[in-house]
Specification:
Layout: H1 2-13, E1 17-23, E2 33-38, H2 42-58, E3 65-67, E4 74-78, E5 82-87, H3 89-95, H4 97-100, E6 105-107, H5 135-139
Helix pairs in contact: 1-2
Family: Belongs to the Iojap/RsfS family.
Keywords: Cytoplasm, Repressor, Translation regulation
Subcellular location: Cytoplasm
């Protein structure tokens, strides 16, 4: 669950839209969670997916599979128990994963804080303060 929450927070940090975390533990033995987000452009989608790889590697959860890096509409990274889906808006609507997995429990990422991997971390940002796009804003520079 912690890995899924970290990925959901990362999506929000990268300004992805409509971030959804689905708990699939009661529905399938193949994976436990989907993190679904909408990107505004291809560059954002790829940057987010690449940063997700770094974060999951820090968690000792390497990527098992990847799809969509050559396409323009959907990037999927499979980390075993968590699968990250980053869509362009049209593809998200077309594939409608939330509808396909309508019986899954939606988890609100805002109600439970994501633990930091650094015990003395002072910010809400990801463990690497230089990893997210909000670094300058958090340091108080424009």
């Amino acid at each position: 669950m912690e890995s899924a929450r970290r990925l959901a927070k990362l999506c929000k940090d990268f300004r992805a839209a409509d971030v959804v975390l689905l708990d699939l533990t009661e529905l399938t033995p193949i994976f436990d969670y989907f993190v679904i987000a909408t990107g505004s452009n291809r560059r954002q989608m790829i940057s987010l997916a690449e940063e997700a790889d770094k974060v999951m590697k820090e968690q000792r959860s390497g990527r098992l599979g990847v799809e969509g890096h050559d396409a323009n509409q959907w990037v999927l990274h499979d980390y075993g128990d968590v699968v990250l889906h980053v869509f362009m808006p049209e593809s998200r609507e077309l594939y409608d994963l939330e509808g396909l997995w309508a019986d899954a429990k939606r988890i609100d990422g805002d109600d439970t804080p994501v633990p930091s991997s650094e015990p003395d971390a002072e910010s809400d940002s990801f463990p690497n303060s230089d990893a997210g796009p909000d670094q300058d804003a958090e340091e108080g520079t424009p």
